[in-house]
Amino acid sequence: MSEVCSCLLRDDGWKWRRDTLRLSYSPYTSPLNTTDVVIENIRTLGNLIASAADGILLRRMIGGTVRNCYIPGHLHGITLAEQATSVLVTKNEVPGNYLDGIFIGATTVPEEITCEYNWCWSNGVGATAAGIYAQAGLRHNIRHNRLGTSGDSFQSYGVHVDAACGDVEVSRNHVAGVISIGYFMGSSTAYGCVRLFEGNTTNATYVPTAYSGLNILPVRLDLGTNGVAMRKFRAQRVSLSASTTPTGGSWLVGDDIEYGDPQAGDYRGTLCVSAGSPGTWKRYGQATA
């Protein structure tokens, strides 16, 4: 059931009449637990100061979509805050905000926020900031976004995922230009913050550093025939102990770290053969000298 409100103009003022119509619409998820609110086609301009409000701020929203909006000049362009869950942020243009273009974070963490096909550039006018900053939360999906622009003189990072996040997927984004780092993923040993990092690109001419942060990068996650996760990582040998073993974190049998800097006469990668922290590792795939 959906309700449609109509109004009638009478000589004694406005009188509201409520008509109830039966429509064929049926949401994918129960309206008792989720919202299917769509916020779209908004154009708003802030005053670009530290005390400015966020352009769009969502709290305690389960489900819903923000799309096709143009949001410059605010503190953050779009913020997903306390208890926001399963919100889709798509096809927005978010330029020139005081801090981050799209900000995901709060004490009560957001979960499963999807950011896709957005263009965030020239943000961070007032401080170091990113096009998309996942500061907290679980299982966010950041994909197919365009970050920065050629010669961008404000935005420091394309995508920034903080070490406090968990299981974030970052895939198939392009950083066209920033003043510092294209992809800033957690800290050197925050192995749980990023679940998948694949298919991302940068414009080398306008991005001084393509990548920083997490030194062992998850690049693929599959399930084996026994249902156990088979995880593929990539790392420079200098970030491993004796070029073989991770220096921290918990690892599973079958975890595979491929060297990003193979050399003739050395090995292609290292494989976990006994689970632990960090477990037992053996090198494989010796290349002929």
- Poorly predicted ranges: 1-26
| SSE series | EEEEEEEEEEEEEEEEEEEEEEEEEE
* Count, helices: 0
- Number of separate strands: 26
> What is the CATH architecture annotation of the largest domain?
3 Solenoid
Architecture overview:
- With 289 residues, this protein is an all-beta fold.
- Helices cover 0% and strands 42% of the residues.
- It has no helices and 26 strands.
- The strands form five sheets. The chain has a seven-stranded parallel sheet with strand order 3-5-7-10-13-16-19, with no helix packed on it. It has a seven-stranded parallel sheet with strand order 4-6-9-12-15-18-21, with no helix packed on it.
- The radius of gyration is 23 Å and the shape is globular.
- The protein starts with a strand and ends with a strand.
Topology overview:
Elements: E1 2-10, E2 13-21, E3 38-40, E4 56-58, E5 65-67, E6 78-80, E7 88-90, E8 93-95, E9 102-104, E10 114-116, E11 119-121, E12 130-134, E13 141-143, E14 146-148, E15 157-161, E16 168-171, E17 174-177, E18 181-185, E19 194-198, E20 201-202, E21 209-213, E22 216-223, E23 229-235, E24 256-259, E25 267-274, E26 280-286
Parallel strand pairs: 3-5, 4-6, 5-7, 6-9, 7-10, 8-11, 9-12, 10-13, 11-14, 12-15, 13-16, 14-17, 15-18, 16-19, 17-20, 18-21, 23-24
Antiparallel strand pairs: 1-2, 22-23, 24-25, 25-26
